[in-house]
Amino acid sequence: MLQIGRQISEVFLLHQEEEIKEIIQQRRLDRDNEKQSIKNLKEELKIKKTRITKEEERELKAKIKKLKGTLTKKPTLKDIAWEKSEEIIKEVGIADAKGILKRYPHELSGGMRQRVMISMGLSCNPKLLIADEPTTALDVTIQAQILDLMKVLKKKFRTSILMITHDLGIIAELCEKVAVMYSGTIVEYAPAEDLFKNPRHPYTKGLIGSIPSIEKKNQELLTIRGMVPNLIYPPSGCRFHPRCDYRLETCDKVRPNNIEIGDKHFVNCHLFDPKYKNSPKFQWGEDINKESYKI
Fold it and tell me: Which domains are present in the chain?
């Protein structure tokens, strides 16, 4: 026995469907009657040989043309949106666009879902596409396919891409410029090649130095002291100062300025600000191996 709520909903849907059918059938009958009346009108004119002037003939034809326009089905906004969706999904390398549009997200693979999300982002021809972790939880092969796809789409649609990711390998392969963020603030901004070859901010150096490299054998990986701060109550001054091995006495009091240290290379750090050149260093009370962590 069905529950009451379920019974009511099923009955309502059934009646609603029948009502729609009746409306459609009635409209079809009306259109058929209108068409038949036009045919009868033409036959009546021929049989009785009624004489009409050219002006009356033109007026009659004009009315028939207008009536014909109301009887033909024109594309609706839904039809146009459906067609546009098929086109944009094909652009991201999915052949069965119609089939994909009729499926739920859980029925698609991870790579397929990412492609559909990219197509949704490109559907309105944006000047800027924001991709937040587009390759997370994907295997290496699918990651490479998604990155290649984004390169192609960037050129084809002439759109800029803002990539948000923690994967430095993806940044090195895809991005032209990089902004390194720590606790919600940009600490370094530079062309990608320059940043990886010559990182200057202490956090950026620690970040890149913590990645294993085939070229640097028998060398310990760098670590960054402490933990990420609570952003509800962020640290005063430079937000990285509680973890920075090169902290100055002023770092916890004054927020660092954005200093240009090279061609389109900017760093938010007191170490590169001439105003704090003679500022005393903060004493941590322990020895720090700065040989591999040199600014």
Answer: 79-173 (3.40.50.300), 176-276 (no CATH)
